[in-house]
Amino acid sequence: MPRLLALLCFLPASAFAANSLPSVGGVPIDFILFGLTLLGVALFHHATLYVALTGLATITLYKIMFTGFTDMVTVNIPYLIVDRNVWDDKRGNFKPNYNPNFVADVKAELAKRGWGPETEIITMCRSGSERGEPSADYLRDNGFVNARYVINGFQGAAIKEGPQAGFRLQNGWQNSGLPWSNKMNKDKMYGWTNK
Question: Half-sphere exposure of 162 toward its Cβ, with a 13 Å CA cutoff?
Fold first, then answer.
């Protein structure tokens, strides 16, 4: 049976445990990048859309590069996409929305390879529970009977106590000795492969 491994890793800023992102003078790098994007919009107001899209792409790529990537995935299709125009006060981050093309994108990727809905599809997110499990459930509800998810996801669960509390250094893909790196394969990135 063919397998399609979909890595679902477009993450909101709060997806990382406290103190797990690099910072400069206590300010997280993604906030600095966002500030630079705002500065760029102010300075280059005649090219606002291009500056904003460049900032969005830079921040998104930074998040993915920091989290990591495995080239063992067949394709990256996000189940949730962060909307940087809507803030979620309760969670303290930008609001993620469901990818309206998720099922269609999965079907298209299967069709490209001559595979059908019985293909084993394995989804994965950072922790396994917020996007990995629900995306596999959603795919099964939409006729992909062999959709599954990676328990504990890519980075695994956060350590709860001790000097490394909040860091994702237990279980998950990265901590199980499986192949990964901070380098992404552009041919497997969502959006790029659909051009």
Answer: 7
